[in-house]
Amino acid sequence: MPHPKPEPKSQRVIFQPATYRSLQQGINKIVEAIRPTLGPLPRVVAIDRILDNRMPELLDNGAVIAQRIIQLPGRAEDVGAMLVRDLLVRIRDQVGDGTATTALLFQLIYNEGMRYLTSGGNAMRLRAHLEQGMRLILDQLSESTVHLEGKEKLAQIAETICYDRPMAKLMGEIFDIIGEYGRLEIREGRGRGLEREYVEGIYWERGLVSREMITDHARLRTEFENASILISDLKIEKPQQLFPVLELAIRADVRYLFMVLGEISDAAIGFLLANKNPERFQAVAVPTPGWGVYAQAAALEDLAVLTGGSPFVRAAGDTLERIRLEDLGQARRVWADLRNFGIIGGKGDARALRRHIAHLRACFDRTDNPVEREKLRERIGKLMGGSATLWVGGATELEIEKRKELAERTAAAMRVAMMEGVVPGGGVALLSCRPALQRLLDQSSDSDARAAYRILIQAMEAPMRTIIANAGHDASEVMAHVKLAGPGHVFDVISERIVDAAQAGIYDATAVQKAAVYGAVTGAAQALTIDVVVHRLEQPLVTGREPSKIKRL
Amino acid sequence: MAENTGTQDIVYSLAASPAFDRDGLCFAARASGLYRSEDGGLTWQDAYASLELDAALPTAAVAVSPDFPADGCVFAGVSGAILRSLDGGHSWFVTRLPSPPPFVLALAVSPDFAHDGTLLAGTLEDGVFRSGDRGAPWAAWNFGLLDLSVLCLAISPDFAHDETLFAGTESGIFRSTNGGRAWREVDFSTEATLVLTLALSPNYANDGVLFAGMESRGLFRSEDRGHHWARLGEFIVTEAVNGLILSPRFPAQPHVLVVQGDTLLVSRDGGHNWSPWQAGWSAHQDIASVIAPQGLDPGAPLLVGLVGGDVLRI
Predict the structure, then answer these.
(1) How many domains does chain B have?
(2) pTM for the whole thing?
């Protein structure tokens, strides 16, 4: 008879019922740290700093708090906490908001689910019914979704995200103008407040290849009117390589030639600068925008559609030998400084531009990859023809940093809200799902199904209860008044009145609510099926390449 | 019935005082300049006389303040500038637009101009310019305007509240719901031909009705603020729709007038059935513009600008 293998000293295996208990401890710890941050009147969570002796960080953002909690002391509870932590970080990355709601829902579903399972329920069947109820909730949220427009309405959405009225007002104005795909840069301002600036046309982060090409020395930039544009990623090593395009331009009486080139040698730059007749013809060059082959190809494609030119691509073996006048793009104005270049009034075919944008939007809708989506959104935003800059000021560097982070989070959530619509906020939309769940409960005779729907009905109340409690009110008493007021009503913790959420402009982004429900229900349901936990007592150093496997500080 | 202004150049645009029935004041924007009439279009004078120009100043757009009897504001769009008169078109201030010079093809004045001072200008290659200060400084606002060749503008009668206006371009229609600062594409076929004219129902805030006249595909009507469109008069309105007027009492009086070549067609049922404005009448030249300063009631005067430069009063 073979001897059983001894358990390695570095591992410990935990079985039921200890598994549930250990996971629950960790889940409850991390969620209770995030719970106070939900709502417009959040409590603050102080987190001790690891690397220095400065004062603790004062946080009211669930995702940041989750990110700061990198390990719980007990190995058993750490597993549960990290389950929630990874979920919250993923939700934040997906939709920019909704982490506290996710945490609350997760906790309630797990705790109630565990209570049911320890009394003899079937975890796998409970999970299936929880997910079935979740689909009903998602449908209900879709049904109550509305799309808002106008700066006032958008400011209301922004305020429910950032709870900063001046910032919300500016965000409402900015997104009303730039739209959900529009380009918004958030930069550190010089003053103490917030300022915005709108930039006409499209610009890329690539500047003139030589300072000597600047023609307006006061503004340190060059500006051409009715310019012809060479669109390429070609490598120009010798001046002779440029001869065909220069000859073509001069023969065609082109006054200004703006060249986008992959690389250009000093000799070729010197040749361009040796132009003795700038009154008749001027040419400048900028590098091809984008890092990497794919980004450059995308930029060339966008430039070509925008200006009506044809790109010359090195990988396709293109050279300038056979360039024709119609290969050059055209624009009303082109400008460049040492850092950026921009195009205003590209003369490409407007229908082709609209088709191109429609194609990019379709790609955006199809892909789930956040990096790919962000790149596509940037391209669409550029092609829409303008951008905005929000300058964020403050009294201290720390304040500016925090406000910038808030503005970035608000902007990301605003885009989501504009793309996918909004539902009545303050927990109303989730509370409104209860009647549909109740009908499902009434129709069901299976004990696991009934338990699942009962848990979800209870969970749908949790966010509103917590918002009320965080604002310092008796949640049970206020909830009773809210229910008496009828569907769609919410307790506005700012005015301390029960109001109709939609009429009062209290909204939540549908995508955020859906992501919270989806993440919490699937995450908790899966956690309820965990039967065994294997601990490594000496945790190996995580060096995996995948960012999700690295615990981030 | 007809008055010849004497020169042979196209009449791009016409505008009349809101008190036309009393003051008879109207303007004709032509390739040879801007002309002013004080007798309801019977005789015309050079409105740019005070500028003492050496050469003709082609003018493609003219618009009159809705508060004209009180403020005397008239605006004219030329290449690279917008001219502003505060005395009913006698003297002018010039506001230059950013270089390269945009050619102004359309002007739209806010119905609430007395309070918001908002004006918009559509240009041939540079999109839309906006002034929020009674026509003094202008700035380009083209967020989302994917076609910068703006041929016509139509402003909501309830602009003070809904801040809505439409721009007809070479490739379709765009809508702004924030006073012309940003634009969104209206769901109109991307293969559509040039949108030459747009007209909004006077009751647009409630009925959401607008009409679009195309260069080669006739007349379209939307009843839901531009989301869905239906073609009207498919076998009758077949040529370029250079002019399009709705009754000021639309939809109670569902009269629609369109320009078709050298004739005028009218529909008394919102665009379904059409008949000539006057039986047997023809301008004998292509009509380039038309206005109905006193509405479309029978007997109300129409001013008709021709490709040859004449303005007819019928």
Answers:
(1) 1
(2) 0.80
